[in-house]
């Protein structure tokens, strides 16, 4: 475990983070109360139905936010990337975690205690506004995903998911999500995801390198996705 300097939480690669609006005093307190560590691929960050004592800031890497369905299968609600918060909705509502969060690659994640986060929301209007916008954007994506699962065939959902993941990559070129996770993200079974990925490779929309996927024809995937809108 380690502590980050305030500047590490304010900006990344020239981009300001959600904490850039904090005062110097708030940043100093954040440095004291936060704990940062590396979560290995597959390691849980927090688990569904446990007490929400903290929220988590993704410094580097990717985290899948999941929920178990009534059939016992894992459904991926969203993929959190660098500069995203996870677990904050349960902290705000005072409930147990409604979902689980699991690192999908080695990731650097900062734990922020519940009491400090709630104090920031109460005392810093700009931070409150940023968190509210983040919450609204998350809900918008959730509504879109529910609509897609209800009306868009699996082929279109996988094309859309690959485009979304490609946008999250930043400086990376390859998507390292497992076929099981990709299936969980779009609400299908692994075998169907594997078949459609093979079709996309045959159609030269993607390339497959060992267990990773590289999008080589974004416009082609956009066309597949938009066919079912």
From TrEMBL:
<keyword id="KW-0804">Transcription</keyword>
<dbReference type="GO" id="GO:0003700">
    <property type="term" value="F:DNA-binding transcription factor activity"/>
</dbReference>
<protein>
    <submittedName>
        <fullName>CRP-like cAMP-binding protein</fullName>
    </submittedName>
</protein>
<dbReference type="GO" id="GO:0005829">
    <property type="term" value="C:cytosol"/>
</dbReference>
<dbReference type="InterPro" id="IPR050397">
    <property type="entry name" value="Env_Response_Regulators"/>
</dbReference>
<dbReference type="Pfam" id="PF13545">
    <property type="entry name" value="HTH_Crp_2"/>
</dbReference>
<dbReference type="InterPro" id="IPR036388">
    <property type="entry name" value="WH-like_DNA-bd_sf"/>
</dbReference>
<dbReference type="InterPro" id="IPR014710">
    <property type="entry name" value="RmlC-like_jellyroll"/>
</dbReference>
<dbReference type="InterPro" id="IPR036390">
    <property type="entry name" value="WH_DNA-bd_sf"/>
</dbReference>
<dbReference type="GO" id="GO:0003677">
    <property type="term" value="F:DNA binding"/>
</dbReference>
<dbReference type="Pfam" id="PF00027">
    <property type="entry name" value="cNMP_binding"/>
</dbReference>
<dbReference type="InterPro" id="IPR000595">
    <property type="entry name" value="cNMP-bd_dom"/>
</dbReference>
<dbReference type="InterPro" id="IPR018490">
    <property type="entry name" value="cNMP-bd_dom_sf"/>
</dbReference>
<keyword id="KW-0238">DNA-binding</keyword>
<feature type="domain" description="Cyclic nucleotide-binding">
    <location>
        <begin position="18"/>
        <end position="121"/>
    </location>
</feature>
<keyword id="KW-0805">Transcription regulation</keyword>
<feature type="domain" description="HTH crp-type">
    <location>
        <begin position="152"/>
        <end position="219"/>
    </location>
</feature>
<dbReference type="InterPro" id="IPR012318">
    <property type="entry name" value="HTH_CRP"/>
</dbReference>
